């Protein structure tokens, strides 16, 4: 508002105020730039979360996101899912799996914290308690490893 | 950070990247300048006077951040004129040509290269040759230091690198980190750990920092 007042003053003849107006304009642009860069960086991190963590974010993280950011995340999830479905034939291709080339179908994992019961494809359930070790199919565990629940053990 | 997070990097040459956090920090660095005409009411903002109606008298010396200098500068130099900070001038140039590796670039202004590239934006019509020799000297400094950065980044594995990195400016540090990452990835592959699925580093960081619930 201060700038507006000065603009009208300048138009009515005080040409030396142009500097002041320009100065304030610079400051406004600067603030705008900082804000935009901050918000954009947050978006980049939220996008990385989808790839690193999976499609369901823990509550603690969601708590810190604004409503618009949650909305953006959901839209991004949808676009990604649509894209993944369209690639790779009938069933689609899950790009967030197998980020490192797999060496075997089953892997040895150790549980880092209590998680509870976990069901595998053939119906058996496995109880994931802290420090228990299991030999499980890779595709089921990958997300849990990325989330820090399990640890991939190399023999 | 983690593999999927790609922040906006700093701009190359004379253009900054608008959304780059690195460029924003870099353009906060201050330049010495001179007020070319009386600047009404700006005295308080620029730290020169106490009254709200005071103006900065013509010819007084100012230290202003780069973003402000770029905004207020125009080729006719009606508002502000800028001078090169000491480090980019004659005296330092001889130091650089003697032995560029010795200089502590981080202390001189952590964004030596980025800031220096931005200075080319302010044409100095009195000394066009200075711009030319400036950029040449700049390049020489970089070339001289680069070799050492590359060598040290490729050979310091699992060591405390803070002593090596302390005298580098931000651009050089980024290069150093890229070198280190390459080295670490290679060692990891050699040990057979390349196929190990790891917990994402984003997740590990969130776990360590206690996220407190905000009231209200």
From TrEMBL, chain A:
InterPro entries linked: GINS_A, GINS_bundle-like_dom_sf, GINS_Psf1, PSF1_C
One GO cellular component, as annotated: GINS complex
A GO BP annotation: DNA strand elongation involved in mitotic DNA replication
GINS subunit domain segment(s): 16-87
One Pfam family, short name: Sld5
UniProtKB keywords: DNA replication, Nucleus
Nucleus recorded as keyword: yes
Positions of the DNA replication complex GINS protein PSF1 C-terminal domain: 103-154
Compartments (UniProt record): Nucleus
Transmembrane segments: none
Family from the record: Belongs to the GINS1/PSF1 family.
PANTHER family hit by this protein: DNA REPLICATION COMPLEX GINS PROTEIN PSF1, PARTNER OF SLD5
Entry function: Required for correct functioning of the GINS complex, a complex that plays an essential role in the initiation of DNA replication, and progression of DNA replication forks. GINS complex seems to bind preferentially to single-stranded DNA.
Subunit structure: Component of the GINS complex.
Name of the protein this chain belongs to: DNA replication complex GINS protein PSF1
Species per Swiss-Prot/TrEMBL record: Rhagologus leucostigma
Automatic annotation (TrEMBL), chain B:
GO BP terms in the entry: mitotic DNA replication initiation
Function: The GINS complex plays an essential role in the initiation of DNA replication. Required for correct functioning of the GINS complex, a complex that plays an essential role in the initiation of DNA replication, and progression of DNA replication forks. GINS complex is a core component of CDC45-MCM-GINS (CMG) helicase, the molecular machine that unwinds template DNA during replication, and around which the replisome is built.
Protein name from the UniProt record: DNA replication complex GINS protein PSF3
Organism superkingdom: Eukaryota
GO (cellular component) term, any one: GINS complex
Pfam families: PSF3_N, Sld5
InterPro entries (UniProt xref): GINS_A, GINS_bundle-like_dom_sf, GINS_Psf3, GINS_Psf3_sf, PSF3_N
Gene: Gins3
Domain GINS subunit: 89-189
Lineage: Eukaryota, Metazoa, Chordata, Craniata, Vertebrata
Keywords (A to Z) from UniProt: DNA replication, Nucleus
Start and end residues of each DNA replication complex GINS protein PSF3 N-terminal domain: 20-72
SUPFAM superfamilies: GINS helical bundle-like, PriA/YqbF domain
Subunit architecture: Component of the GINS complex.
Family: Belongs to the GINS3/PSF3 family.
PANTHER family (alphabetical): DNA REPLICATION COMPLEX GINS PROTEIN PSF3 (PTHR22768)
Cell location: Nucleus
Keyword Glycosyltransferase assigned: no
CDD domains registered for this protein in UniProt: GINS_A_psf3, GINS_B_Psf3
């Amino acid at each position: 508002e201060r700038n507006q007042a000065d603009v009208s003053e300048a138009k009515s003849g005080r040409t030396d105020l142009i500097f002041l107006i320009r100065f304030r304009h610079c400051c406004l642009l600067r603030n705008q730039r900082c804000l935009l860069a901050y918000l954009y960086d947050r978006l980049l991190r939220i996008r990385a979360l989808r790839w690193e963590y999976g499609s369901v974010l823990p509550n603690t993280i969601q708590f810190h996101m604004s409503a618009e950011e949650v909305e953006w995340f959901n839209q991004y999830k949808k676009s990604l899912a649509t894209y993944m479905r369209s690639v790779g034939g009938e069933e689609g291709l899950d790009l967030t799996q197998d980020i490192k080339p797999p060496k075997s179908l089953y892997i040895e994992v150790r549980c880092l914290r209590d998680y509870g019961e976990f069901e595998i494809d053939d119906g058996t359930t496995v109880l994931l308690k802290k420090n228990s070790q299991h030999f499980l199919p890779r595709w089921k565990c990958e997300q849990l490893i990325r989330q820090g629940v399990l640890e991939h053990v190399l023999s | 950070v983690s593999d999927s997070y790609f922040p906006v990097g700093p701009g190359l040459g004379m253009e900054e990247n608008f959304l780059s956090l690195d460029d924003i920090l870099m353009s906060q660095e201050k330049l010495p300048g001179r007020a070319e005409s009386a600047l009404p009411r700006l005295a308080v903002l620029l730290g020169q006077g106490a009254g709200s109606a005071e103006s900065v008298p013509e010819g007084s010396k100012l230290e202003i951040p780069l973003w402000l200098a770029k905004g207020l500068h125009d080729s006719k130099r009606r508002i502000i004129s800028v001078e090169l900070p000491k480090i980019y001038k004659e005296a330092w140039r001889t130091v650089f040509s003697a032995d560029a590796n010795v200089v502590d670039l981080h202390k001189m202004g952590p964004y030596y290269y980025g800031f220096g590239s931005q200075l080319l934006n302010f044409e100095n019509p009195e000394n066009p040759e200075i711009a030319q020799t400036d950029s040449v000297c700049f390049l020489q400094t970089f070339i001289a230091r680069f070799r050492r950065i590359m060598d040290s980044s490729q050979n310091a594995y699992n060591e405390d690198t803070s002593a090596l990195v302390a005298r580098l400016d931000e651009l050089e540090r980024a290069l150093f980190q890229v070198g280190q990452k390459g080295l670490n990835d290679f060692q990891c592959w050699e040990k057979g750990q390349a196929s190990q699925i790891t917990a994402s580093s984003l997740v590990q960081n969130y776990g360590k920092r206690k996220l407190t619930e905000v009231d209200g």
